[in-house]
Amino acid sequence: MSAEGPSSAAGPAVTSPAAIAEATPSMAQFLEIKTANPDSILWYRMGDFYELFFDDAVIASAVLGIVLTKRGKHLGQDIPMCGVPIHRADDYLQKLIKKGYRVAVCEQMEDPAEAKKRGSKSVVRRDVVRIVTPGTITEDALLDTKARNYLTALFVAPGANQHAPNAGQLAPDATIALASLDISTGEFEVGEIAGADLPGELIRLSPSEIILADAPFADKTLRRWIDLAGAAATPAPNASFDSRSGEHLLKARLGISDLAGIGTFSRAQLSAIGALLKYVDLTQLGRTPVVRPPKMTGAGTILVIDAATRSSLELVRTAAGERANSLLGAIDRTVTGAGSRELAARLASPLADVRAINARLDAVTYLARDDAARDALRSGLSLAPDIARGVTRLAFGRGGPRDLGCVRDGLQAASACAKILSTSREPMGLPGDLNAVLDALGSVSPELIAALETHLADDLPHLRRDGNFVRLGARADLDDARRLRDDSRQVMAALEAKYVNDTGVKSLKVRHNNILGFYIEVTALNAGPLQAAPHNETFRHRQSMANAMRFTTTELIDIEGRIAAAADRALGLEQEVFNDLATAIARQERPLLDIARALAELDCIASLAEVAREQGYVRPVIDNSSAFAILGGRHPVVEQALDTTKSGAFIENDCILGRPPASSLSPGMDDPGPSTNAGDPDARIWLMTGPNMAGKSTFLRQNALIALLAQIGSYVPARAAHIGVIDRLFSRVGASDDLARGRSTFMVEMVETAAILNQATERSLVVLDEIGRGTATFDGLSIAWATVEYLHDRAKCRALFATHYHELTALAGRLNGVANHTMEVKDWQDEIVFLHKVKPGAAEASYGIQVAKLAGLPKPVIDRARQVLALLEKNDRRRGAGPAAPLDDLPLFAAARPKGQTASDQGPSPAELALAALNPDDLTPKAALDALYRLKALQQAKK
């Protein structure tokens, strides 16, 4: 929770020692606990409800939409109160967390009956068992099954480069360490980046909550980046960011004595790790989460993508925040939540290591070639629940019977998948990644699987207190206790029949309610025999009603006690079974998490293989060369969204930036034929011209997406592709402003372009669209011209540069690495037809007026635009031969002349328009005379 965001407190006057001393025992207990948790909303357990008091109640009633009432007085004032039932706690908790509140959950730590033994006024012992924050959620109902829930600690390394001079913000070269943990699965990653890459890194991680020290917390620019990433900012003491403490805590969590076996960590990284693990301890109050060995990320390990590029390419969410129609939505064929999370993680973090990328491609190729094995694996995976999250809830003591069932069913699915992989193994063996998956799937002891299958019923309740989750026949003593508990109706029916026979009272009934328990009831008229000898010694009077009397017997009390004891004993035996199974699972947490990861990876690989077969994707060639050769490329999202019955198949296009090596095609792949639009084979920068709506933006984005798909280890939508690994991907397509910071569309464009030019390297891919269009023509043209020259001469990167500045096409003749390409368009009967095909050369015209016509601009506007365009072009030609024509000669300015000035090209007058609308053949003499008068009036009005 941000310090500037929602907060909660009972108020200093209310929680002062004197005020607590004057409160009732129960309220004094609440105030003491509240004082220890001033920044959290306190959920105070009272029976079957979590009660909230004072300001907490006021806040919760407004956020949750529940009734605000009152309970007694404190210091002469009414105590505001509201409550939420235990069985709906998750629903209400989710609403509070989404609003940015922290919730301290205070539970009853003893049975109320035990408290009464200490005296009638004794208060049940209560204490906070956890503090719930956005980054520390484990409940299924509060988590997105298809998304990670990272808690991230951010540490800015001290040094001269920490802050930009006179800027009050992080310097671009500041060293920043980030440690991220999803406590619901144990997934853990650690990285170190430069300050300039932080916005993109935050978007990549998409944490729910970020912990940072006081100085970074006060940095408004950093806080804004955190807000844009959708995370809650939580301040932590500077002392929490301690490298020695981080090293000690990490060793303790992983159960190792030396970190060298899992990686090399800088002091900044260990500082971030220390703050992260301390915060987890603080919020979980001693309960230790499952933590996997951290995965190292950062520069050199993954493809760096800045925040603007992630937004432009719509990788995991569209601009509207939807998963559908994003790249992830287009390629996701996973059948489990864990598999979907793995695919999203790969898409957010493409690899930059050739060997790792090709290892992933080998695994996808294996399953893409074996349809039967892939279908069988996907069928088996569809039955696999989320093992990691089930194991974690059990580790925190928040698990239920369904979490035990989750482990059981997951292990059964793992066994089935392992069998399929083993039987489908080719003579050469499985690829490395699939072989690692197979090894992990069998890492749990058979004894655990047997215990879960033997003891757990098929249908499991949500809560352990509900019982009936142990299979019949698993334990004989439990079966006996259940039989007595469940046969109570038959036992009472037999007892009732006996009493009717003994007394002769046919209306005698054995009944039950929650206040009296079991009792005997007869009508008032028939109560006499039970009150007379000899039955009065057996039947003891309990209660008189208007029309009935109630009795009990020693035998009834004894049977009732045995039934109640049987129910308690049955539940107690089931709790023993639960605890035994949970303990057995805890002993094998690591192997179980390995299985969970293996199932997620297998689902992700099978998904990529499935979409490759379904959509006709091909395996790209990935190496360390400078190649960028895509033949027959297609946009993965647009292609699937296209209605082929109306618009036909997606038009594929080639893109070859620079001369590719001879090995551009995969070994054994059929030759796709020569490129139809390659142009200059040495050009590594393509200048794209052509009208809007012709497909330029689609072409630009599709090549960036194809490169990104290749580096996550996926097949790509093309006939063939050869891509030298890209270190940084930049895409600036589209316009947006930032009014909250006082930045215009053009200013945002220039800031993003500056970031690209300052960071692009020879191994980068840059996609730019319409640079310089947000300012005056000559200013914009100059900026665009200089940008292309910089990309060519200094950055020397591979680039696609789309522009409407036709003058830039002259650069193709001046710079060896620049080539002109355009979108093919056909003129037909004063209309334009977009062919969506890229070809070498420059656009012959912009076709802007034709596009405006297609958009539905009024005909007078279109006609007027044509007149202005013709005169502007004529004036432009005259400039080449002599002095420019005066501006007053142009209709653009003549249209704005003061009244009294004339111009021959101002367009038809009202009288001329009225005259043009007349048809003389249809006019009677009288109608013709009337029309003449109207024309005369219009002419006079004009004068």
Topology (elements, then pairings):
Layout: H1 17-22, H2 25-36, E1 41-46, E2 49-53, H3 54-64, E3 69-74, E4 77-85, H4 89-98, E5 103-108, H5 112-116, E6 126-132, E7 151-156, E8 175-182, E9 187-194, H6 198-205, E10 209-212, H7 214-218, H8 220-228, E11 232-235, H9 243-254, H10 267-284, E12 295-298, E13 304-305, H11 307-313, H12 327-331, H13 337-348, H14 354-369, H15 371-381, H16 387-395, H17 401-423, H18 432-441, H19 446-455, H20 476-486, H21 488-503, E14 509-513, E15 517-523, H22 528-531, E16 540-544, E17 548-552, H23 554-586, H24 589-615, E18 621-623, E19 628-633, H25 636-641, H26 644-647, E20 653-656, E21 685-689, H27 696-711, E22 720-724, E23 728-732, H28 745-759, E24 765-769, H29 777-795, E25 798-802, H30 811-814, E26 818-828, E27 831-840, H31 848-855, H32 859-881, H33 891-894, H34 910-916, H35 925-942
Parallel strand pairs: 1-5, 7-10, 9-12, 10-11, 13-23, 18-22, 21-25, 21-26, 23-24, 24-25
Antiparallel strand pairs: 1-2, 2-4, 3-4, 5-6, 7-8, 8-9, 14-15, 15-17, 16-17, 19-20, 19-22, 26-27
How would you describe what is shown here?
This protein has 35 helices and 27 strands. Among the domains are: 17-132, DNA repair protein MutS, domain I (MutS, DNA mismatch repair protein, domain I, 3-Layer(aba) Sandwich), CATH 3.40.1170; 145-299, Nucleotidyltransferase, domain 5 (2-Layer Sandwich), CATH 3.30.420.110; 620-850, P-loop containing nucleotide triphosphate hydrolases (Rossmann fold, 3-Layer(aba) Sandwich), CATH 3.40.50; 910-942, no CATH class. It is an alpha/beta fold and 943 residues long. The strands form 5 sheets. It has a 7-stranded mixed sheet with strand order 13-23-24-25-21-26-27, sandwiched between helices. Strands 3-4-2-1-5-6 form a 6-stranded mixed sheet, with helices on both faces. Strands 11-10-7-8-9-12 form a 6-stranded mixed sheet. Helix 15 packs antiparallel against helix 17 (401-423) and helix 17 packs across helix 24. 44% of the residues lie in helices and 17% in strands. It starts with 16 loop residues before the first helix and ends with a helix.
